[in-house]
Amino acid sequence: MIWPVIAWGVGGACCFVSARRYQRLLAVDDGAELASKLRLGSRAELEQLQPELPGGLRAELVAAALAAESAREVMAELNLSLGLLKHELNSAGLVAKSATRIAVAASGFCAAVALIQWLSGRGGLPTLALCIAAGVVTGAVSAWLARRAQRRAGEQLTAWGTVARRLTRFAETEWPGQL
To answer: CB atoms < 10 A from the CB of 52, how many?
Structure first.
């Protein structure tokens, strides 16, 4: 009767890891808010927005753009920040996908052992059923979290892409001919 415990334990740990990663994804600064406020990408607009923005990536990007002395500085800060953000956004879905595979593989292994025990007369059918159920349930939860994380990451990447285009326009108008 240890095999269902192992299958549910590993599957539960995978669901927990997926949920924590998704929770971290939800805590990432929302690019849509900044994209909606940043219309023209002018210095006056950025200076007006700066006091309104709470800390985090949004405030850092606006402050860096205003403090920059060249278009290259703006672009370097933008590329660095958005590269790190893209990694963070994409990794949540990848972690949940991996957790799904681990949960299903662990329960599959436990179910195979339980099946061998059942066929040899040492185990019961409920043990096998519990191992299979562990894989189905925990795999489904992790897969659901992976899809949600990928959807959220896609939305955020689109919003931050809009912010990047508007800050690029700011750099082009502020320092013409440098890009």
So the answer is: 10
Place of tokens 């800050």: 167
| pLDDT tens for the chain, residues 1 to 179 | 899 999 999 999 999 999 999 999 999 888 888 888 888 778 888 888 888 888 788 888 888 888 988 889 999 999 999 999 999 999 999 999 999 999 999 999 999 999 999 999 988 899 999 999 999 999 999 999 999 999 999 999 999 999 999 899 888 888 887 76
The amino acid at 34: L
Determine the residue type at 48.
Answer: Q
Residue 81 domain boundaries = 2-174
Q: Answer for the pair 135, 104: CB distance below 8 angstroms, yes or no.
A: yes
Number of domains composing the chain: 1
**Measured at the alpha carbon of residue 171, what is the angle toward residues 165 and 175, in degrees to the nearest 5?**
150
Is 80 contained in some domain?
yes
Token reading at 141: 């939860």
